[in-house]
HTH cro/C1-type domain-containing protein (marine sediment metagenome), 75 residues
Amino acid sequence: MARSQGKMTVSETLKQAIVASGLTARELGRRSGVTHSSITRFVNGERGLRHSVVDALAEALGLQLEKRTRRCRRA
């Protein structure tokens, strides 16, 4: 599914915020409770993150994410 032009995904927004924060992966890990290796691998595009990890990183970075759920319907 293509995303709307001009809108960033949560992953893209989070990656930008991590880089812009100027925090090291170790410091962000200390603040969020997420391992520095997980943060580094995420920023480098080597892995995705669980929702709970996204929430922890967002909180440590002072971001407020809007949660949306999608419902699947049977045809």
In short: The mean pLDDT is 85. Residues 10-61 form a domain with the 434 Repressor (Amino-terminal Domain) fold (CATH 1.10.260). The two ends are 19 Å apart (CA to CA). Residues 23 and 60 are 11 Å apart (CA to CA).
